[in-house]
Structure formats: structure tokens, C-alpha cells
Amino acid sequence: MHDQSGRYVIVYNGEIYNYAELRNELDRSSGGIAWSSHSDTEVLIEGYAREGEAFFDKLNGMFAFILYDKKTGETLVLRDPLGIKPLLIHQEQGRTIFASEISAVRALALGGLQVREESLADQLSLSYVPEPYTMYRDVYKFPPGELKKYRDGVEISSRRLFRHLEGAPFAGDLNAAVEEFGAAFRQAIKRQMRSDVPVALLLSGGLDSTAIALEAANQQADLKRAFTMSFPADDLAHHGQSDDLSAATTIASGLGLPLEHVAVSGGLMEKLSAFNTLFDEGVSDPAAIATFLMCRAARDANIKVVLTGHGADEFWGGYRRYQAHSLLSHFPTMAPKLLGAVERLSPRLRPGPLNAGLRRLRRLAQIAAPGAGRTLEKYYTWVPDDLITSVFRHPLDSVPSQRLAAEFNAMQADHPINAMMKIDQRFDLMSLNLNYGDRMSMASSVEMRVPFLDFDLVRLANSLPPQYKVTSFNSKIIIRKFLKGRMPSSIVHRSKAGLNMPVNAWMSEKVGFFDSVVNERTVNRYGILKWPEVQSVISRGRSGQNDYQYLMFSIMLMHSWLENRV
User: Fold this and answer.
1) Per-chain mean pLDDT for the chain
2) What are phi and psi of 555, to 5 degrees?
3) In CATH, what is the architecture of 8-164?
4) Chain centre to alpha carbon of residue 346
5) Beta-strand pair 223-230/305-307
6) pLDDT at 273 over 70
7) Do the Cβ atoms of 213 and 451 come closer than 8 Å?
8) pLDDT digits (tens, 9 = 90+) for 305-327
9) Stretch 418-424: mean pLDDT, rounded?
10) Do 335 and 368 touch, CB atoms closer than 8 A?
11) 353 pLDDT higher than 60
């Protein structure tokens, strides 16, 4: 799109939620503009044409755009400050390529792209590749919130925008914070429900999607329906997985929201090859598959926009590791002893409802063990670095925990919990959840919106002290207080739930399919991993000697990707 003067050209991906307010503001300041459309794209380019770069700081949304100035020959590039929308950059032979997907970079690159083995190690350890890296060397994620200017493909300036999202320290008490949250959340839902196409909700049965459903109902917003996952009872029992369908049904029926459950059959894993084109980002979190299936169901129901609860965990204290660190900090002597005893007395990994809980207890016991060190990065990885490096044939330049440690060391945070949340915002949120959310929804021709990442709500979250969000025995304190008295107690006090898949059941029951993907022939074909070490991981995982089911799942998806991309 061009601006009215014809000087500027923009290529844009995303959604500006406050575009209507900005449009009215531009009309007032310019004495009226002869708009040619009702699009946020036009508001964006006309705002820049009249106010320059200062206009960008007024945006509230998810976006990535490239704006070219015909007069100066300069190109401006900006990605939203939370990294909701993807943008890649690849530079070669004096050329700079920008794209939303790696497939586009592959198509435009003059030479072949080389796989980055450290990214494969990230995938095995974390289930994703942390930004700014991708699966290929010399292809990077564009830094969020940084306005960069280029001339003839060469960067000539860079500056950070959206500093106002940091937020001044909140002066009120917890009750005042809950009131502020409610006001900001209501506006976020109102803005993100604006649409000329049908809108639905991905409902996990957890606090975040429950809050969205409740507020949309209170506003009498036109939320068409909700989608949730259902699994075979045997898989739920084997995996120790919570029954999201039951919780989602309680929420939807209470709010009068039509609920459609997407049933996952036992044969889904054998169909994973159909997802190969969706895994260019090195993601092997099974929640990506659940997201794709629900988005596809939404598309089939003629839904064009879905809302999700992404961002609530990282900004409002939802991850169990925050409580774990608080617990170990408050009980530095007693907690490690108690956890050590639990680990020694607990049975080896086996099917049943205690599976998930024992898995987390064992990991916490390892973190708390005497001599283990109390470094924060230990909360983020399930697989030891030496195991990851041992399966690779060639030495790696870095391993995930090293980068996490470096990030923590460079972090300027006033509290360890705040530091952990900032790391999660850059790693788990940006590099994993938002990454696969955008990829899977776009693959289904559905737009995914994230109300908890409304900029006003983010600014409030950043202003609050950590004890308003999480303690040793409670999480998402403000969201729970917001829901208290409005939703059933069983929902308000429900433990963390999220989109998941029965990976433990798959790894135990689908042995034949796994072995057809990961075997001596396929491992040796690419010369990246060492078969004896991979075989040892498989053996120990299947025997229950070690909790390697998710590592095995990542190895399988990695080889499936290599089969189709190398």
C-alpha cells in the first residue's frame, strides 16, 4: 500500500488493535483525512507520513512491517516489541532478505542454507530454538521493538521503541492491582474482539482462557464458540494428564458458550509426517500440534479469528518454576531434604495419574540437591547438557544452559522472580508459544490474537511487584482474585493447565512408528547424531530408567524434519 502522497510504500503483517482511536486522532490533528479504506494498514502508513517515527510508539497490537521511502531510498523495518508476529532476516552477497517464514528465505537465498547444529541441540533440550536463532546459520529472527533503517541493504541506524511498556512501579496494594487489572483486561478484550469476521476462543480449561471467556461474556461480545481438546481415556491415564475437556465444559456451559471438542485419536502420531512443513522453526512442543488441530477445526467452522491465553504465564506468574524458586529460597535447608527423600522413595516412571507430578518432583529434587548450585537456568532444562552434547558427533559452540546463564547474568532485575519472568517472556513466550501459535494458526488460515499481550496490560504487569503475582504456594494471584466469585471454585483454584498431548503414552505405545523414523540408518544418514548414544537414550527411556520421553519425541520430530529439509 502507498500513502496518499505516493512517497511511502508499506508491506505489513499483523493487526493494530487501537487503529480506530489512532485514525480519529489523525483526523483531528490533520483536519480530516480522505481515507480510502477502513484498514489498519492505511492508518499505519498515513500516521507515519504525518508524524514520522514517533507515531510507531502509539501502536498497540501485533505487527511486522517494512516501509520504503521513495524519496530517500531508505527502508524502515519494525517488529512488535513482544515478538508476537514473526520476521526473519538473511543477509548474503550484499542482499538483505526479510520474510515471515523460512520457506520464503530458502526460495530467495542464492546459496543453500546450512543447518545450525546448535539449534538442533536447543530443540532437544528446550523443545524450541531461542531467538534470534533459527534452524539455519545466517538466518535470524528480527529483534522485537527495534526500529532499524536500511539503505541499499545496509543497516544505517537502529533504536529501541516502546520503552513505555516497562511501566513505573505500582504504588497501590494488591486489591488496587486487581482493580487495575480488571479495567485494563476489559479494554484489551474490547479491542481484540473488534472484527468483521467470526471470532472464537481456544479454551484449555485453565485460568487464562477462562478469564477471556468470562470477560467476553460480560461484554456480550459476539464470541461464536470455543474449541478444546479431548483424548482417549487410556492416554490420559498413562500420561497423568489433566482432563481439560471436563473443565472446559464447566466453563462453557456456565457462560452459555457453544463448545466444540477436537478429539485426538490414538493414531495421530503416525500422521505426524503431515505436519513436517509446519516444523521449520525447530519446535517439538506437542502443544503446537494441539493448536494446529483446534485452529483447523475453527477454520472448518468458518471461524477466521481465535483468541488464546498466551502471555498470561510469563507476565502474571503462571509457571511452576516461580513457585519452586520461591519455595527453595524460603526453605533452603528443609526443602532439599524433603525433596531428596521423595525422589528416593518414588517409583520409576510408569503409567498412571502420578506420572506428571513425579516427573516434576524429581526435577525439582535434582535442582535442590546439595552441590547442584542454585543457578536460575536449571529451572528451564530437563535434560543435562552433557547428555545433549554426547549425542552429537561434532563439538557444539554452545548449549542452551550456557546461553540462559549468560542472559541471567546480564539481566538487570530487582528480584529473581522478575528475572525469571523476563527470561520466559523472551524464551518460552516469544521463541516457543507465540512462534508455534502464529505458525499453526496461519497454516489453518486463522488469525490468532493474544489479549494478555495487549500493551496496556503488559505495562501494568511490568509495574507490579512479584509478590502480587506468585508466592511459594500460589500462582497467578491477581487473575485468580479477578475470577473469584465469578467462576466456580474448582476452576479458580485449578492447577496450571495448558494445551498438551499424551507424549508419554505415544512413546510407550507407538514403538514401531518411532523406530521407523529414528533408527541406525536414519541417524547415520545425516552425520549429526551418534547412533549408539541415541540408542542408549531410547533404551533408558523405554525402560523407565530415565524420564526421556520428551527428548525421544524431539529426536523423532528432528529426524522427520531433516528427512524433508536436508
Assistant:
1) 89
2) -60, -40
3) 4-Layer Sandwich (3.60)
4) 32
5) unpaired
6) no
7) no
8) 999 999 999 999 999 999 988 88
9) 93
10) yes
11) no
Query: And the C-alpha cell for 551?
Result: 527428548
**Residue 553 CB-density burial (10 A; 0-12 exposed, 13-18 middle, 19+ buried):** buried
| Cα–Cα distance for residue pair 409/376, rounded to 1 Å | 10
Q: What are the DSSP E strand ranges found in 32-145?
A: 61-69, 74-79, 88-92, 95-99, 139-141
Residue ranges of the chain that CATH labels 3.60.20.10: 8-164
Give the cell for residue 344. 528416593
Q: How is residue 169 annotated by DSSP?
A: P
Tell me, what's the pLDDT at 93? 87
In a 10 Å sphere around its CB, with 0-12 CB exposed, 13-18 middle and 19+ buried, how is residue 333 labelled? exposed
Query: Which residue intervals of the chain bear CATH 3.40.50.620?
Result: 183-317+421-492
Burial tier of 485 (Cβ tally within 10 Å: 0-12, 13-18, 19+): exposed
Q: How far apart are CA 284 and CA 558, in angstroms?
A: 8
Cβ density class 213-246: b for 16+ within 10 Å, e for less: bbbbbeeebebbbbbbbbbeeebbbbbbbbebbe
CATH, domain range 183-317+421-492: 3.40.50.620
